[in-house]
Amino acid sequence: MAASEDALIDNAIHGDRGALATLLEQYGPSVRRGLVGEIPPRWRSLLSEDDVMQQTYADAVRDIHKFKSQGVDAFPRWLATLMNNNLRDAIEGLEADRRGGKARRIEPKTGDQSYITLIDILTASTSTPSRCVSREENAVYLKRAIGQLPEAYAHVVRLYDLEGRPISDVAATLGRSPGAVFMLRARAHSRLQELMGPASAYFSTI
Q1: Do domains 3-99 and 113-202 have the same CATH topology?
Q2: Is the distance from CB of 97 to CB of 104 less than 8 angstroms?
Q3: CA dist., res. 186 & res. 92, Å (int)
Q4: What architecture is domain 3-99?
């Protein structure tokens, strides 16, 4: 790896947006070619390569401070990993929504019930909590975490998860494709789990 590229990466990690933009311009097109033929035909009207790359670049801006350069082509490999994760999240969301499975939006409920149901989704893969708190306290934790989300993330969670709107309505409201909405939703859920942190140990579904 050339010394100049090492410097670009180091500068990008330390907050230089211009350096990051240069890296994305350099490697983005070649990484994008990995998407050719990867979007199933049934989803091409709901998800595009542009959607995937737009979210990938947004993720790169958000997470570049976590990047660790390990060997030749580390940056394009990292970018390709972000891209593939986004593609997976979009397709899984679209497929789950069509099936009406558990990853589908929460059906509209009154009061705090929609928050409790979202907690069930966010903590589905965690171990059984050792201490339980009331449903009301659970809702308070989650409301606080949603308030700390980036605006776009919070909007998706409120419209799709809490209000239970159809994906077509959410996409139209946000001016994004349905696939792009599911990528945002996956990032939002991941961020909520991070924000709730130790509080998640107290979540209960009883």
Answers
A1: no
A2: yes
A3: 10
A4: Orthogonal Bundle (1.10)
pTM of the predicted model as reported, rounded to 2 decimal places: 0.81
pLDDT in tens for each of the 206 residues of the chain? 455 888 999 999 999 999 999 999 999 999 999 999 999 999 999 999 999 999 999 999 999 999 988 878 999 999 999 999 999 999 999 999 998 754 444 555 555 778 877 877 777 655 444 445 566 677 788 888 999 999 999 999 999 999 999 999 999 999 999 999 999 999 999 999 888 765 555 444 43
Show the DSSP H helices in 100-162 as ranges.
Answer: 113-122, 135-147, 151-156
Query: Which strand (E) or helix (H) includes residue 179?
Result: helix 178-196
List C-alpha distances in Å: 51 to 13, 66, 101. Answer: 24, 23, 24
- How far apart CA 14 and CA 7 sit, in angstroms, is 11
- Sorted by where each begins, the domain ranges of the chain are 3-99, 113-202
Q: Which structure tokens are listed for 7? A: 């410097």
Written out in words, the top-level CATH class of the domain with range 113-202 is mainly alpha
Quote the CA–CA distance of 179 and 43 in Å, as a whole number: 8
**CB burial class (10 A; 0-12, 13-18, 19+) of residue 171?**
buried
Q: Which of 20, 17, 15 is nearest to 5 (CA)?
A: 20
Question: Cβ(51)–Cβ(174) under 8 Å?
Answer: no
| Calpha distance 16→98 (Å, rounded) | 41
